[in-house]
Amino acid sequence: MQVKDTFFRIILLIAACFAPVLIIGSLLTLSSGFIPAFNETGLSFFWSATWDPQTREFGGVVFLVGTIATSVLALILSFPFSIAISIFTGEIIHGTRLASIIANLVEIISAIPSVVIGLWAIFVFIPIMQQLQILIGAIPYGTGFLTATIVLAFMIIPFSATLGREVITLVPTHIKEAAYAMGATRFEVIRYVILPYARSGIIGGFLISTARAFGETMAVTMLIGNVNHLPTHILSPTNTMASIIANEFAEATDNVYYAALIGIGLLLLISSIVLSYLARRIIKHFIL
Amino acid sequence: MIETSTPNKLSNLNKKDPSQKQAAVFHKMKRLKPLSIRKPSIAKKRPQIKNISQQFSHAETILSITDLCVYFSATKVLKNININFPKKGLVAIMGPSGCGKSTLIRAINRMHELDQSTNVTGKLMLGNQDITTLPAMAVRQRIGMVFQRPNPFPNMTIFQNVLSGYILTGMRLNKKQKNEIVIENLKKAFLWDEVKDRLHERGTFLSGGQQQRLCIARSLAMQVDVLLLDEPTSALDPIATTRIENLLQTLKKEIPIIMVTHNTAQASRISDYTAFLYLGELIEYNKTKIMFTVPSDKRTEAYLMGRFG
Amino acid sequence: MFALQRNATRYRIIKNHIFNGIVLFFTVLALVPLFLIVYHVVKMGIPAIDWDFLTTTEAPPDTEGGGIVNSIVGTVAITFLATFIATPFAIAAGTYIAFNRKKKLSEWVYLSCSALQSIPAIVVGLIIYIWIVAPMGRFSILAGSVACAFMMFPIIIISTVEVISLISNEVIEAAFAMGASFFKTIMKVVLPIATPGIAAGIIIALARVTGEAAPILFTAFGNPFIPTTVTDPASTLPLTIYKFAISPYENWQETAWGASFILLLFIIVVNFTTKLLTKKR
Questions:
Q1: Which of B134, B170, B180 sits opposite C7 (nearest CB)?
Q2: Rounded to an integer, what distance in angstroms lies between the CA atom of residue A59 and that of residue B291?
Q3: How many CA atoms lie within 13 A of A176 on its CB side?
Q4: Which of C208, C112, C101 is nearest to C164 (CA)?
Q5: C104-117 and A2-41 are packed helices; what angle lies between their axes, rounded to 10 degrees?
Q6: What is B6-12+50-304's CATH number?
Q7: What one-character DSSP code corresponds to residue B286?
Q8: What's A2-287's CATH class?
């Protein structure tokens, strides 16, 4: 019995070690896969904006900028919606049936496969964007930076809204009561007591949303236009780290080209992990 | 007969040595005990007055409640309460747990409106004004409330906490006014000396009793007409409790206070009038010294002798 | 003492109403795209679906008809294989953390789990390509399953830890007090109690990877025919939707809508039933 127990414990231990091993293994794999490209391009990989497989020039800046710009703008666009949903379901109608219905609907948004959202955007949202572009006299690509960003903003609403709702409901009742007893209106209680109290949790939620936006691949690939140039204005097509991998990895026959795409993957991996780590730190700090 | 000037005597003691104060309280509590022994003689001369409300003239009344009923869903928790609160003095509301005493003062401050399933009917007059017709926010600004659990705003500094009523309701003050209000009200709440060097820190380092006094200061800063206290000492240790009691004895000279308590000793020590609630009804309301010596209702007497709750 | 001037309550109440209105407006506006997506998927998807659609493989571009049976087979094969790969390891790892909370290693494992969860799906595809597809020299169901298992692994670990932590310590101590070994306590007491919760975690993880196209892109790659072995490449529903949505061919686009309807229906039904089941307990 003693032997069996020890054996069992060792099996559990090995299984547990799998998670760190997978992370370290992924980092090592991608790093070593990136070496051939790094040898060719040197540090210019991190500051050159030229990506041309023909001339074997590989600079990742376009995609880095594309990812950061789409994510940040999507975050800004989604902000009023997420915070409104958090406040509405977490405080104004908290505890009612409607609140749980809305919360469930918001969770469904995160459950919709991103290819389905992409499909819908191609056939429903892009025509609308084209009409608008014709209206303002721009070239009606339909696809492009803004289109991808708006859809991305919609897709990341659930992550910050759900967390925001949770931290808002965690604000102790006796603190809220104190504020109401001072004669504050609900708006004033939310503005001066609830939001400051829940602030770090809300910020954590937005960081998680950003991490999601960083890694979002399919819908963005379908909508961003896939042109390897820095966006010249808000409607122009461009590319993100995730979408360049999705688009070009299958065709990358050349060794350096292949390694350069792995390098982009490494960049994406590290930035996503760092972002979500920061988010978790902030949330943990709030809850403890 | 217990001597009539007890509250004043005790407040005089405030200035003296604290140990003496506590001894006095203890002494007082001990003296209350033999009530049961005197029971037969009391029974003969029960006073007829069960509700002192009518004896306050209109000018003497700050808050008058007529036919107040509170329903939680279908349950009637408060049954036709009629009570007037005087402009001078501290009224204690006591009764066994579940009798509706917290419900009553929460109804005064319209806190029940935060809960959809609660219904309140009846008339409340604050001075000459029918406050049931006013918006709840306006009423709450004029009636201060201190809760069982000290609840200073954790995201605000001590300074901001005193001013929280102004911050929350969007009233603008200049720097001089702010300083004036903070200093004055912290002094009123006996807290100034303890926190004057740390005004701009968050109130989280304060002890429970200090936090509760901060909450009192915050209500006083709003220049409220009445101060409601919902078992303000039930979460505190005995020493902090004594300090709050002493504070209330000083404060009651300036502002009418209505305090819920489940502690009969506390009621007898610091209140001028006592109301006894039982099962959602106002059983008896009279001067504290009369009620604690010759209660007019058997239930009051039973409660004072510790027979229920 | 200055004269106190209370702020006009009516103005503040109006402000409060305006605020409520704005909050309601944004909440409703955020849900509009959701309803539009569901509406269009139902409207465009249902006409595309008939018996043929569910029983034939995909048609060449610019022809009539064609179905998605190859994608359905691929999806089912990959997700089930992924579940079988991920579940035992994940439950074992979750049990380890739940019973060794104080150990440094548990902390590291937990941290790695959140890191694993934050790896973008496309990067997972990339890693599995390097690990499995490149050495084998071919895209395969196996590679796709490993990629999906990679994504399910941390989700199941975390839900296992949570479910086991909810079991009251007394029950576990009672088992130990009866002289049961660690192995017996886990297998006969802890895991049976935790089974419904862990199952819910597995189903949620499964629903999530079912909808992902990104990890399949370079692992199972896609296959217009029904795969016969685990070393064959395969198509999945999301992959087919992606490929067909960006194609210019009308019959493919129609197929994409039909496939979207089936995928969305599956995911919403699974999410709701797990939600209902977990609520009941």
A1: B170
A2: 89
A3: 20
A4: C101
A5: 50
A6: 3.40.50.300
A7: E
A8: mainly alpha
User: Mean pLDDT, chain C, as a whole number?
Assistant: 91
Phi-psi region of B263 (alpha: psi -120 to 50; beta: other; left: phi over 0): beta
Chain B: residue nearest C4 by CA? B223
| Unique residue bearing structure tokens 């559990």 | A12
Residue B84 Cα to chain centre, angstroms: 14
- For the segment C45-55, the average pLDDT, to the nearest whole number, is 92
ipTM above 0.90, yes or no: yes
Tokens of C21: 């209105």
The whole-angstrom separation of Cα B239 and Cα C179 is: 50
Q: Which of A220, A208, A233 is nearest to A75 (CA)?
A: A208
Residue A243: pLDDT band (50, 70, 90) is very high
Cα B151 from Cα A174, distance rounded (Å): 6
C241 touches chain A (CB under 8 A): yes
Class assignment of domain C54-280?
Answer: mainly alpha
- Token digits for C69? 């049976």
Closest among C212, C81, C93 to C156, alpha carbons compared: C93
The pTM score is: 0.87
Measured distance CA(A192)–CA(A180) in Å, rounded: 11
Portion 14-53 of C in contact with A at CB < 8 A: 15-16, 19-20, 22-27, 29-31, 33-34, 36-37, 40-41, 44
Which residues, 6 or more positions from B262, have their beta carbon under 8 angstroms from its beta carbon?
A: B94, B95, B96, B97, B101, B231, B234, B309
Q: What is the mean pLDDT of residues B4-21?
A: 43
Distance (Å) of CA B292 to CA A208, B86, B249: 62, 19, 18
Give the number of other Cβ atoms within 10 Å of residue A229's Cβ. Answer: 15
Any CB–CB contact under 8 A between B137 and chain C? yes
* Identity of the residue numbered B175: K
| Chain length of chain C | 281
Q: Measured between alpha carbons, how far is A124 from A122 in angstroms, rounded to an integer?
A: 6
Closest by CA to A216, choosing from A124, A127, A113, is A113
Nearest to C236 by CA among C254, C252, C259, C266: C259
Which residue from C211, C224, C244, C210 is spatially nearest to C56, judged by alpha carbons?
Answer: C224
Residues in chain C closer than 8 A to A76 (CB atoms): none
Which stretches of B131-231 are DSSP H helices? Answer: 136-142, 158-162, 164-168, 175-188, 192-195, 208-221
Which residues are CB-contacts of A77 (< 8 A; sequence separation ≥ 6)? A149, A150, A153
Can you name the residues that pair with B91 across neighbouring β-strands? Answer: B258, B273
Is there a contact between A282 and A207 (Cβ–Cβ < 8 Å)? Answer: yes
Chain-chain contact of B167 with A179 (C-beta, under 8 angstroms): no
Find the CB nearest A88 among C23, C112, C117: C23
Q: What are B119's strand-pairing partners?
A: B71
**Sequence letter at residue A225:** G
Query: For residues C40 and C48, what is the distance between their CA atoms, to the nearest angstrom?
Result: 12
Residues contacting B292, CB < 8 A, separation 6+? B2, B32, B35, B264, B267, B268, B274, B304
pLDDT of residue B14: 42
| DSSP result, B181-202 | HHHHHHHHTT-HHHHTT-TTSB
Partner residues linked to B145 by β-bridges:
B228
Report the range of poorest mean pLDDT among A93-102, B79-88, C173-182, C236-245: C173-182
Written as six digits, the tokens of A269 are 């991996």
The helices-and-strands tally (H runs, E runs) of chain C is: 12, 0
**CA–CA gap between residue B143 and residue B160 (Å, rounded):** 20
Choose among C6, B181, C19: nearest CA to A189: C19
- Cα A26 from Cα A271, distance rounded (Å): 14
